[in-house]
Amino acid sequence: MRRKLVVGNWKMHGDLKANKALLDALVAGLRSYRNADYAVCVPAPYLFQAQAILQGTGIAWGAQNMNQFEAGAFTGSIAPHMLMDFGCSYVIIGHSERREFCHESDHVVAAKFHTAIKVGMKPILCLGETREASEAGQAEEVVARQLDAVLSRFGAQELRRGVLAYEPIWAIGTGRGAAPERAQAMHEFIRKRVARLDETVAEELLILHGGSVRVTNAAQLLSMPDVDGALVGHSSLVAREFLAICQAAN
Ligand code: PGA
After folding, report:
1. Mean pLDDT across the chain
2. What is the tally of helices (H) and strands (E) in the chain?
3. Measured by CB atoms within 10 angstroms of the end CB, which terminus of the chain is less buried, N or C?
4. Would you call 131 helix, strand, or coil by DSSP?
5. pLDDT digits (tens, 9 = 90+) for 16-43
6. What's the CA gap between 93 and 108, in Å, rounded?
7. Ligand 1 centroid – CA 172 distance (Å)
8. 122-127 and 37-41: which strand pairing?
C-alpha cells in the first residue's frame, strides 16, 4: 500500500509574517491527520523559519530547486548540502516553471535528481507536457522523454529513492485541473514505463499529481488508483484550503 503524500509548493510567495501564520495553522490542523504524509517546499530564504517551526511536528519541508553541483563558482546558486543544513527532506526538481523560464534541460534535471539523492534528500521530479504537445497528441512522448532522462541514466533503483510528480503544464495555475480519469491514464502510463525496468519499484513509487489541485477536485483525483498524492501550488498558500486537500489524502 502506497501512503499518500501532499506537498505544498509555495513558489515565489510569502514573507516572515504570513509564513508564520500559515505554518502555525498547518501544525495545528495536521496534528490529527496521521494516515498520510505532508510537506511544504518554501522559498530558500525561509528554510530556517520552516525548520524552526516544523521540526518535530511530523510535517516535512523542502526547497524548490538547487544546483546540480556540490560547490563552486555559481553566483546566486544554492548547493544541495546547504539545503541539508536546514533539514530539508525534499527538493522539487525540474518544475515546469524552471524548465521553461530557466531553460533547465532534461540532462540538468537528471543531474540534480542524482545529486539530491547523493546528499540524502528526496527529489520530487516533475514531469508534464505543454498544451501544444497535449493537443498534438504528444503528451506521452514528452513525459516518457522526461522520465527516461533519469530512468535510463540512473536506473530504477535510484528512481525509487525519489518521488515523481505529473503536472500537465496546461493545468498549472489555471484553476482547471485535469479530469481524474485523464490524470489516472498518464499516471498509469508512467508507472508501466517504470515497471518495464523494475516491477517492484513501479509498485512502490509515489506519483503525485499537480496542476490546479484544489479543494474541489482533490478527493476525486486522490481516489484514482495511480494518484499517490498531490503537489499543490495556489491552494497551498491558504491554510484552510491546503488542510482540506490534506484531509482528502488522509
Ligand atoms: P497550482 O501549481 O496548484 O497553482 O496549479 C502547482 C505547481 O505548479 O506545482
Report:
1. 98
2. 12, 8
3. N
4. helix
5. 999 999 999 999 999 999 999 999 999 9
6. 10
7. 5
8. unpaired
Q: Smallest Cα–Cα separation from 207: which of 111, 217, 193, 115?
A: 193
The C-alpha cell of 58 is what?
511530523
Q: How far apart are CA 15 and CA 214, in angstroms?
A: 23
Q: Which residues, in sequence order, are CB contacts of 129 under 8 Å at separation 6+? A: 138, 139, 142, 143, 168, 169, 170
> Per residue in 187-233, pLDDT tens?
999 999 999 999 999 999 999 999 999 999 999 999 999 999 999 99
- Is 175 touching ligand 1 by the criterion CB < 6 Å? no
Which residue's CA is the nearest one to ligand 1's atom 3? 233
Cell for 180? 481524474
Predicted local distance difference test score (pLDDT) of residue 146: 98
CATH number of 5-249: 3.20.20.70
pLDDT at position 105: 98
- All structural domains of the chain with their residue ranges: 5-249
75: left (phi over 0), alpha (psi -120 to 50) or beta: beta
End-to-end CA distance of the chain: 14
Q: Which string of DSSP letters, residue by residue, matches 57-93?
A: SS-EEEES---SSSSSS-TT---HHHHHHTT--EEEE
Q: What is the DSSP letter of 155?
A: -
Which residue type is seen at 194? V
